[in-house]
């Protein structure tokens, strides 16, 4: 048996050990910061399901189109044969953006050199013959209006700007003039402004305008057609926030 003094000392040591252990216990947790800052949402829409349908056309009808602009093709442009749809952009607040255009049939485009607004019409395969390109089509804006904020009345755009490829915040912009200001450029981006003094696309909340489609098939392809020739133009429009 231990002496009482030793028992008290031992108990005191044990108690001190327990208190020390309790003092060293730690419980930790933490927090994180979450959230998303998004650009003002903008919605791009095309009427008619985005389809410019020229319906059935006989070769006799197409052969009656003028060839004065280019002897190599029948011109639906000169014949004023067109189809239309409306384009609209609606944003919840003023936003800088551009529209980029990609020709999904670029490999079939047969158009005048130097015209960056020509799009391919797809290919035609005569029975037993290789596939040939049908020609080209163009798309232009008609009566394009813009608004700075959702509640503003619309007014005609003051200037248009072009950038190569899909636009980015650091894109180099050049002012579009003449036909470049109204035709949709394949492989480029097009932006607008409501202020004449801007040097790049301005902040807008609304864009509204008509899109007019016209096509020019190659004369040799139409003249040599022995079966139905289906137009197969396809392009992608993307709204890009800047």
UniProtKB/TrEMBL annotation:
Residues 1-23 form the signal peptide. Pfam families: DUF1120. Keywords: Signal. InterPro entries: DUF1120. It comes from the Bacteria. This is DUF1120 domain-containing protein.
């Amino acid at each position: 048996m231990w002496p009482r003094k030793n028992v008290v000392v031992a108990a005191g040591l044990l108690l001190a050990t327990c208190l020390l252990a309790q003092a060293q216990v730690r419980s930790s947790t933490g927090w994180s910061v979450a959230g998303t800052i998004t650009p003002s949402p903008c919605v791009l829409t095309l009427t008619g399901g985005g389809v410019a349908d020229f319906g059935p056309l006989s070769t006799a009808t197409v052969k009656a189109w003028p060839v004065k602009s280019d002897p190599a093709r029948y011109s639906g442009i000169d014949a004023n044969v067109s189809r239309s749809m409306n384009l609209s952009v609606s944003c919840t607040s003023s936003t800088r953006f551009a529209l980029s255009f990609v020709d999904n049939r670029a490999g079939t485009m047969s158009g005048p050199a130097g015209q960056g607004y020509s799009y391919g019409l797809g290919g035609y395969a005569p029975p037993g013959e290789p596939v040939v390109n049908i020609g080209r089509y163009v798309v232009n804006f008609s009566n394009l209006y813009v608004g700075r904020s959702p509640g503003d009345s619309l007014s005609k755009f003051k200037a248009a700007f072009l950038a190569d490829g899909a636009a980015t915040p650091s894109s180099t912009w050049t002012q579009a003039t003449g036909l470049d200001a109204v035709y949709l450029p394949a492989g480029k981006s097009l932006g607008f402004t409501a202020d004449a003094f801007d040097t790049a696309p301005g902040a807008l909340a609304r864009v509204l305008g008509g899109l007019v489609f016209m096509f020019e098939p190659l004369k040799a392809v139409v003249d040599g057609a022995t079966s139905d020739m289906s137009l197969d133009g396809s392009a992608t429009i993307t709204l890009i926030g800047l």
